[in-house]
Each structure stands twice: as C-alpha cells, then as structure tokens.
C-alpha cells in the first residue's frame, strides 16, 4: 500500500518537476503547466501522463508536449519507490530509519530529477535549485540520526566544493592554454561552476566519507558515459566536434543517489578482498 501511495505522490512530484524545468531556466516565476507555445494546459493535462493518455498532448495551435513530460514523472515516481524498497529492508541500511529521515530521502529524489532534466536540456545547474536544496540537506543532518551529522555534512560540503573547484580552475587553465596554442579561444570547460555547487550539495547530503566514494563513482561514470557517447556517434556516423560540452551533472546525481541509498553495499564491495 505504501509503495502505491508513494508512486502516486511521485507522479505528482514529477509533474511539479516538469513545470519547474520549463520555467526556472528562463528565469520565470513558476506557473501552471503550459504547452510549448505558452498556451495553458487544461487541468486533466497538467500531468504529462494524463495529457498523453487522454489525448491532450497537443495544444489548439498544434504545439506538442515532448516525451520528457511523462518520462520525468515516471522516473521521479520510480526513484521514490526505490527509497521505499531500500528502507523496508533494515539490513540494507543497518538501522531502522525514522519517519523524518524517510521523508527527507523522498524529497531528495524530485530534486535530483529536476537538476538532471535542467542540466540535460540547458547545461545549467541553477543556484535557485541548489541553495534551497542545501538548506534541506542541512536540516536533514541536524534533525535526523541516520547518515551524516551536521559536522560531517559541513565537512562534506567543503570537501566537495574545494575538490571540484580545483578541477573547475584547472579546466579553465587547460582550455586557455590549449586555445592559445591553437590560436583559437575555447569557450567550454570540462566542469562548470554549477557542477562545483552540485557536488557541494552532494557533500552536505552524504557527509565527507561517502562523498569520497561518490566522487570516484562520478568520475568513473562520467568517463564511461563519454566513451559510450563517442561509440554511439561513431556507429551512427555523426561527426564529433572536439571540445563538445557534455553535461556532467547527471553523473554527480547518479553517484550521489547510489551512495545515499546503497552506501553499505558499495562499501562492502570496495572492502572485499581481490581473489
């Protein structure tokens, strides 16, 4: 019963994520859901899923909702259900979680989806999302007993900031020197400042020790994703332009989610002796 309830709440939360992903990157105040041509959507089409199922995907002028809308709602709901499944088994977290901690974990899932959607579509990680999320993470650390306490959360945030800030500065220096050598400036860098703020948020959520593993997981996933991107481009015979920017935020999010929900299992795997 709880899984069904959380799934339905997740669908609604995914609808809110969609609305915010439409408005926040354009510096607009959040509005009720609209079609791509800015036509207000009818109540039954506020959710992407219902818009698709009930034939309300298209506005009167012909503007169609993308598949991002139902997929975002489903992804949000599934992540929130995953929280339920993980916390139902006490052995997976080695501690019975209290209700408040469970609620915090549920809240993180739509935040992660929102960050991912905006980064994929606009290559932006917005302060207007990160700062309230950081406040939530600090409240989590201060009010709950499971996971990082407030001190560990603050150290994790500082650690994440300084490590990725060094990478951010190093990326700027590398592209500047390479641009000078090529005689043509390079405008893109490997890490944006939004990535620095996102890993800071991850540190506040996880604490410094899980964050170290999360950063290694993030780098590994980022490298694997870049290789897969190159392979797909090669197989489809699409030209790849050197220094094409790839969003890094989704990999940070994935590493954070893995360490948030499966830190015990991942730590056991890392401590396992090599045969």
Unreliable spans are 91-96
Please indicate the percent range of residues in DSSP E strands (runs of 2 or more): under 5%
* Silhouette: globular
Return the average pLDDT rounded to an integer.
86
Q: What's the gyration radius in Å?
A: 20 Å
**Helix residue percentage:** 55-70%
Structural class: mainly alpha
Number of self-contained structural domains: 2
Q: Please report the total strand number as a whole number.
A: 0
What's the end-to-end separation, in Å? 43 Å
Number of helices: 10
Q: What's the SSE pattern?
A: HHHHHHHHHH
Reported for the largest beta sheet, the result is: none
SSE inventory with pairings:
Elements: H1 2-23, H2 48-53, H3 68-88, H4 90-93, H5 99-122, H6 127-143, H7 150-182, H8 193-206, H9 208-235, H10 249-271
Describe this protein's structure.
This protein is mainly alpha-helical and 275 residues long. It has 2 domains: 1-81, no CATH class; 89-275, no CATH class. It is built from 10 helices and no strands. Residues 91-96 have low confidence and may be disordered.
Labels describing this entry:
275 residues; mainly alpha; 2 domains; 70% helix; 0% strand; globular
State the gist of this model.
The protein is mainly alpha-helical and 275 residues long.
């Amino acid at each position: 019963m709880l899984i069904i309830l959380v799934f339905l709440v997740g669908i609604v939360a995914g609808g809110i994520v969609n609305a915010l992903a439409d408005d926040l990157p354009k510096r607009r105040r959040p509005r009720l859901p609209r079609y791509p041509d800015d036509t207000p959507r009818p109540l039954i089409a506020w959710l992407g899923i219902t818009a698709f199922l009930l034939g309300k995907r298209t506005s009167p002028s012909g503007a169609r909702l993308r598949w991002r809308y139902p997929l975002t709602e489903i992804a949000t709901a599934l992540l929130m259900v995953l929280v339920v499944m993980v916390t139902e088994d006490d052995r997976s977290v080695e501690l019975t979680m209290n209700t408040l901690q469970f609620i915090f974990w549920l809240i993180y899932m739509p935040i992660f989806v929102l960050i991912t959607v905006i980064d994929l579509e606009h290559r932006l990680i917005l302060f207007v999302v990160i700062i309230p999320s950081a406040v939530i993470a600090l409240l989590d650390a201060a009010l709950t007993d499971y996971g990082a306490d407030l001190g560990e959360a603050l150290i994790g945030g500082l650690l994440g900031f300084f490590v990725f800030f060094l990478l951010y500065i190093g990326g700027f220096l590398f592209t500047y020197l390479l641009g000078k050598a090529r005689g043509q400036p390079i405008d893109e860098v490997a890490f944006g400042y939004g990535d620095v703020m996102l890993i800071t948020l991850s540190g506040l959520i996880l604490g410094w020790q899980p964050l170290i593993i999360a950063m290694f997981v993030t780098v590994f996933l980022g490298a694997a994703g870049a290789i897969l991107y190159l392979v797909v481009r090669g197989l489809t015979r699409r030209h790849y332009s050197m220094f094409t920017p790839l969003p890094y935020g989704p990999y940070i999010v994935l590493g954070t989610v893995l360490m948030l929900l499966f830190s015990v299992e991942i730590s056991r795997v890392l401590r396992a002796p090599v045969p």
